[in-house]
């Protein structure tokens, strides 16, 4: 892969230059503004990161998490760009010089792309976090075989890829659909972002029919695009030169995401009282975290206690996590430069942080958060509630969209349920099914339901469920 292609500023939709050519921003800087002012980005403020429907203003949402990933991603890009730019190459005089293959515009380009990619990497996630994705997949695995269209099994009208798309529903694939079709639907290409940015957020360049759970190559473990966006995916891959490989910037984005949530989940879980300072210190020891890192935590605690800080345990953990983010950022940047050749030819199968002791540290943080927070009773209770909400919404929306635009008579309740689907999503449906036979559009009808649910915030989904079921009568 070549940086010239990876940093493509091409867009799917052509646009005229504004301001008679006086706009000095790069294509990626324009992407940043489009994302920030979009409604789908704003809705992240009321979507779950870890703790659904949490009333505390301390606990992270998808919005604050995305801002943190954006910041860490840019930091990683700065470090990696500086290393690549300053790579030691020998000129005719024999003196070391700058790497001519990675000039300053490339450095600023990868920083801008990673900053934008962090903002939208979770933009397609449904309500209630990753559990929301699992609930949607579970619903289709239970009900897809029983759905009918014009008296025939729905399965008959789906290609194998379309069928697997629904069974493997992914927020990553929904995110690509969101930014390229659903947001700003009056424009044919959604936000109309650059191909360089879109390529960077495709974490899994894999169709649903190619998914291999547990594959050594992590980018084959999930799907990255729906059949409805396959043509666009192929265009992006051709333009950026990635082919079937993962964009190197997507690897950096994944590292930024890992660093952000591994450290943030620990801070949020401690704030909610899921473990004590002493228990946390013991867990770090039991999981083999290197002594120097553990000593940094105890030093931070001693400083806080001797300084008379109220709540020295919280101060110590928050200070230590900030320092560990810096450690992991350096480790991830070093991992990229160390394996740059394999990453650029698409043969690197793993993650950027792969060496001890930083790998042990990162894994320990993830495992502690999972053991103490993700398996807590409070999480279980909210996930049970979330499952009721999403199951109910799918129960009423999917059968209703199957009669939408079918030529069949729409029942009284189906008509009312269809009114819940935003008009802009219906516009997108009609744009991409115009001129096709009704039987060919079953897949697109079902996507109307998943688009609608994925676009909901946690609170909106909860309140809608309460209203429709009469709980708040």
Note the main attributes of this structure.
21 helices; two-stranded antiparallel ribbon; single chain; putative deoxyguanosinetriphosphate triphosphohydrolase fold; 473 residues; two-stranded antiparallel sheet; mainly alpha
Protein model, in words:
With 473 residues, the chain is an all-alpha fold. The chain has a domain at 249-376: putative deoxyguanosinetriphosphate triphosphohydrolase fold (Orthogonal Bundle), CATH 1.10.3410. The chain has 21 helices and 4 strands. The protein has helices at residues 3-6, 27-36, 39-42, 62-85, 104-120, 129-143, 160-167, 171-182, 195-201, 230-240, 248-271, 277-286, 291-306, 312-338, 340-344, 358-374, 377-403, 412-418, 423-433, 442-454, 458-468, and strands at 89-90, 96-97, 148-149, 152-153. The strands form 2 sheets. A two-stranded antiparallel sheet has the order 1-2. It has a two-stranded antiparallel ribbon with strand order 3-4. Helix 6 packs across helix 17 and helix 17 runs antiparallel to helix 20. The protein is globular and about 75 Å long. Residues 88-97 have low confidence and may be disordered.
